[in-house]
Structure of FUSC family protein:
Amino acid sequence: MVLIQGPLMLKAMLSAHFARDNMIFAIKMFIASMLALYISLAMSLERPAWAMATVYIVANPLSGAVASKGIFRILGTVAGGAMAIAIVTTLVNSPELMSLAMACWVGFCLFVSLQDRTPRSYFFMLSGYTAAIIAFPVVDNPQQVFITAVARMEEIILGIVCVTLVSHLIFPRHIGPVLAGRIDGALATLSKAARDILAPHKGDISVVEDVKRLAASISELHGLAIHLNYEPSSLRGMTRPLQALQHQMVLLLPVLLEINDRINQLRSLELKAPQPLRELLDDILQWLESSHRRDLTRSAEFIRRISAVEQECVRETPWLTAMELSALTALRTFIERYAQCCQMWMDIRSGNIDMDRYPLGDSKGRFDLHRDRGAAMRSGVAALISVGLACAFWYVSAWNMGSTFAMMAAVGSSILASMDNPVPAMLSFVRYTVASLFFVFIYVCGVFPAIDGFPLLVLALAPVYLWFGSMLFNPANTLTALPILVNTAMLLNITNNETLDMAALANSAAAMVLGFLLPALVISFISAMTAEHSAWRLLRHSWRDLAEAARGEHLYSAEHFTRTMLDRIGLLSARLASAPRLTASAQTIWGESALGTRLTILQRLHPELPPMMQGQLQRLQGNIHDYYAAKGEGRKADPRLLDGSLAEHLVEQLLQLPATSSRRQAMLMLVGVKRCLALIQQAELNSQAAPTVV
């Protein structure tokens, strides 16, 4: 039995801040829900509550997000309805097979949804549990499946049309200005970080924390840009250019860390920079201090001057020469890419963008987001088992609300599955579903008998829906407000032929609650994981990819490897606050990202090296592979395998050979390998033994 935690619930309810934006949002959503309810009643649709609930399910303060989520919901409803019709008409005479097919469909759709970490994932998830919502209630009357599917689509589409119109017409909030502000802020932060690194007499400037925060901010741009095609802002139609810009900005982050490392190393040796280099750095600092609409043509001048300084770069030892060349090359890369990002942003804002000039993803336009197929598979299996168990109980008990129990098991196992451990959130959803019964009881027993007509109905519903609607404005209150808003509508089930049946109401509420409790129990045994366990999975995925890169088994480009690792870093950062024991292990992830990128490039350059050096490079790569293969398998790895002296020796040999572009690039990559290994080895030696994760 789920106990309602009164004081905590009251505190959550009273946390709604009736600020201007909150109230505007609440009023807009209430207008949309009442419009959907009125039209449903006027058209005598079967379940007006579906339209009313849909408004709050797709509600979002940003109009573009409302429209895009609504379209994905419509498409998911159509796909789910088609599958429901196919399964019911084919297997209605075999309830066991029909239940198995429906459970497999829900699990499969959830698995696919969790593999697509974009707003499109909503389509796949909806396709799964919508089929269950349509199919299970018509098992005893299968000839109604098509009518039920059409009714479901009518109500869903009506609710989406109403909320989209209201969101776009009444005080619309477009996502374009939000994105523009974030991009301006990201470019300014990139400029500030570069200035902090290059400024003289700054000492050992650490930019790692700034880069971490910037990585999280930039990673969100990819998903937000998808909504732009669904609103009339100035950035409409710029989804792909903005995603290309986001990719280029992501690639600047490891370059900043590389410059920081090289300059700190050179400063620690108190090496005096030659006059041309000091003048160049002063000019670059002045250029970076201007706004991002700076004179971008000067970037070409800086690149020419960097090349001139490189020609004169000769230090006391070959290694110091290579270090300075590496710093200059990283600085040139930063200026090129930063100027390109600024130019892209100017072109996007002007609407004059040539996508042929800017790469987007890999050659097939794919994006480099981390996917955990194992976790997605377990979530899909948990959904399959939850729906299967609900169906089994339904058939054995012959419960007249068994169909509601089964379809809510499909919904409950899906909507929060993207969390590492959705069980606490599911139990919270149950608590506030039970709380919604309080409002339903008051309406059914005390309010509805005293009102007559739609205007009075609107006035009666306004207090609850405006209050909790204002809470829904804040994403932190979603698990409080959404179950009350949606389940109050569904349990009231307002129709033109209102009947009072408290037994049916209690029965339906019990089915809804049990429909969430069952998958919560199943998920707790099969797919739930702690933040620490999830973080370990991210680290071990990274270590396995790094081992593959060292062995030459990584099939993608260096940029693909970098972007995938940076995406994992963003996911890891969100979990470290709840996994303090992994802080030491995660400290090396930035260096490991840079190491893997350089190893991937060295694999391509391997044939260009002399045969003797090829053997030495293979030995270096073999040591790195053995180290990270052991870590990826959960075995203890020997930090001595990270000795970078062989990389330094290879650098010295390359500097003695006639210069070619391939040899120069190999030398720079080996400098990076040496520095990454030194930082990782030192961190490993200083850290305590990592905890074992089962």
Summary: Residues 16 and 494 are 27 Å apart (CA to CA). The chain is about 75% helix and 0% strand. Residues 362-366, 688-694 have pLDDT under 50 and may be disordered. The longest helix spans residues 318-350.
